[in-house]
Amino acid sequence: MSGTVRPSDSWASGLSYESYVGRWSRLVAAEFVARLAVVPGARWLDVGSGTGALTETVLVCCAPAEVVGVEPSAPFREYAAAHVPDPRASFRAGDARALPVDDDTFDVVVSGLVLNFVPDRSAALAEMRRAARSGGTVSAYVWDYPGEMQLMTHFWAAAVALDPAALSLDEAARFDFCRPDPLRRLFTEAGLLDVDVEEIVVPTDFPSFDAYWTPFLGGTGTAPTYAMSLAEDERAALRDALRARLPTADDGSIHLTARAWAVRGTAG
Which of 40, 38, 18 is nearest to 27 (CA)? Predict the structure, then answer.
């Protein structure tokens, strides 16, 4: 299959990302920030702020003094700035491994669905710890790729059945660390204290198969990048294989769930 030529992850469209997974990240973000229980007036840093989902949730739910988002993708920064016009928010270009912020500056440093895409996660955690004030909170969430991120699990099961080489792209294989023990170890080794990991489970419901399938045609994210690398007939075969395997109700709707792992620690 043409898909056996490994496409890279593409993050070129904020709108496509929102349709694919950003909307589900927003559901996780609401529960994530509620559990942090941060007092109003705090300064927040959002590492890998993407389309602004987590930043926007903080603004709505936590009455912060400021939220600074750091994001390497220019299209994502532009999308976030256009959709999060709150003057308390700002978005900067930058890499999680070299954050463009001063030491000991933020009360809360957070990251949503980002750590798995950072080549050096230890460096990113060290930077997040550096940016947090003493006693501040450092926290992140990632999808449970090896377990219960069902909309992706079904996609890759169908893709690998047709194209075994696609296994090298499957997030479950690539991001095996997205489990409680490795996440706890990552935060502890960064020098964070009182590290805790919790699950957050959200529904990912689709009114029809087309509603499930169409976001994979947006070309933004690992699975959509792979889908759009296929020849038209191969993509049709993948679509049909997915249609056959998804749990579909009598009315055509598809009801799945997505689990994220949320990990937090305290800067000493």
Answer: 18
Check residues 231 and 5 and name the one with the higher pLDDT. Answer: 231
Residues 6 or more apart whose CB falls under 8 angstroms from that of 268 comprise 134, 191, 192, 193
pLDDT tens profile 93-124: 999 999 999 999 999 999 999 999 899 999 99
Q: What residue has token string 């890998």?
A: 48
Query: What CATH number does residue 162 fall under?
Result: 3.40.50.150
Residue 22's alpha-carbon distances to 45, 75, 109, in angstroms, are: 19, 14, 20
Residue 13: the pLDDT is 52
Number of domains making up the chain: 1
Task: Write the pLDDT tens digit of every residue in 1-35.
Answer: 433 334 455 555 556 777 788 788 889 999 999 99
- Residues 195, 21, 257, 163: is their CA dihedral positive or negative? negative
Contacts 24+ apart (CB under 8 A), 120-126: 121/177, 121/186, 122/186, 122/189, 122/190, 123/96, 123/97, 124/47, 124/96, 124/97, 125/186, 125/187, 125/189, 125/190, 125/192, 126/190
For 93, other C-beta atoms within 10 Å of its C-beta total: 11
Helix (H) or strand (E) holding 70: strand 66-71
In the block, which residue shows the tokens 């890499």?
A: 95
Neighbours of 5 (CB within 10 A): 9
Residue-range definition of the domain harbouring residue 151: 2-266
DSSP codes, 218-238: S--SHHHHHHHHS-HHHHHHH
| Cα–Cα distance for residue pair 11/260, rounded to 1 Å | 21
Q: Is residue 52 within 8 Å of 25, Cβ to Cβ?
A: no
Report which of 108, 180, 168 is spatially closest to residue 142, judged by C-alpha positions: 180
